[in-house]
Automatic annotation (TrEMBL):
One of its GO terms (molecular function) is zinc ion binding. It is found in: Cytoplasm. This is Endoribonuclease YbeY. Binds 1 zinc ion. It comes from Rhizobium terricola. Its main location: cytoplasm. Zn(2+) binds at residues 126, 130, 136.
């Protein structure tokens, strides 16, 4: 199994300490990478691919969302692949950036009646899959991405976050 080089930046108040976030990211993204490789869904480059994980807030992610997606509102997670990639394609040494907004994750976790940690784990996996070209715009793409998320989360001991829902 190819390891990941995970770069962490905590850019907002209210997050756990950086060491704890590094451990969580290593466990979650490491399991996602292992799953993708083991299932033959994703090749990895010879050297450890790098992913940047930014722990932000609603204000910052709102500005980024407005600038890059034309949506002037906060969102839970944004992913910016370093290079365009189709699912199953060979990534470069830099996978890209995942940005997560704490307040939105907290609100959603409460609404979904899930723990903050479980919802954060789901969003890390979700953002990570976006870096590999997975998306959920079309129904077929959504089904494929959500099925992968569900299987990766099950390997992490979490239940299906989409149970009882139509693909997004």
């Amino acid at each position: 199994m190819q390891e990941l080089d995970i770069q962490i930046a905590v850019e907002a108040e209210g997050w756990a300490d950086e060491a704890e976030l590094e451990r969580l990211a290593g466990r979650v993204l490491g399991e996602a990478a292992r799953y993708l490789q083991a299932e033959g869904k994703q090749p990895f480059p010879a050297m450890a691919p790098e992913v940047s994980l930014v722990f932000s807030d609603d204000q910052s992610i709102r500005e980024i969302n407005a600038e890059w997606r034309g949506q002037d509102k906060p969102t839970n997670v944004l992913s910016f692949p370093a290079f365009p990639l189709q699912p199953g394609g060979m990534p470069g040494p830099m996978l890209g950036d995942i940005i997560i907004a704490r307040e939105t994750v907290e609100r959603e976790a409460l609404d979904l009646e899930k723990s903050f940690g479980d919802h954060l784990t789901h969003l890390m996996v979700h953002g990570f899959l976006h870096l590999f070209g997975y998306d959920h715009i079309e129904a077929g793409e959504a089904e494929r991405m959500e099925a992968l998320e569900t299987r990766i989360l099950a390997a992490l001991g979490l239940s299906d976050p989409y149970a009882g829902q139509d693909p997004v």
